[in-house]
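REQUEST ID: PR-0412
SUBMITTED BY: lab tech R.K.
PRIORITY: routine
TASK: structure prediction, single protein chain
INPUT:
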Amino acid sequence: MNRFLKHWRLTNRGEAFCAQVVAYADDFVILRGGAAEALAWTKAVMTRLGLTLNEAKTSLKDARRERFDFLGYSFGPHRYKANGAWYLSASPSKKSMRRLKANVAKLLVPGNTDPWPELGDKLNKSLLGWSNYFCLGTRRSAFCSIDRYVYERVRNFLARRHKLAGRGTHRFSLDVVYGELGLARLERLPLAPASCALR
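STATUS: complete
OUTPUT:
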């Protein structure tokens, strides 16, 4: 990847395509300018360097009209629920949300006998770490979705552990799970954009 980025700089592709490369490890996006020409040039250079593009992850997108995923975020048009207006932003991608939910599900398997304080700490570390990464852009909808999922999984897990009849909504209400049991609720976390921007 470093060889590709060096070749991009040495051949002044940024100026030629009126574009900019944003890269992290082996993932990158080319922003603005002649997208089709940049893609064709990139494929040719990668072939000469003995590298290959992941075709499943490679595509041309008009970010003003359609979203694309990069480093866990989904960039592109978003809609205000209040009035239906469109705006450009970034939010946690669906894949990132599925991955977090899968991690939560692994912790809350029926056979887990860890005491709640220990289990709650593991959950909170996972949730807070995820929310800290996704501290920029539009996040409320994603955070609410994660909160609903986590609450239901925790409530069902504790209801099974305590052999309660039904779903355990009375014994393990929202107030109990997020209050007495100390589970982190993402939609209620204070926002700290200044610290996020420094990461």
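NOTES: The radius of gyration is 22 Å.
REVIEWED BY: pending
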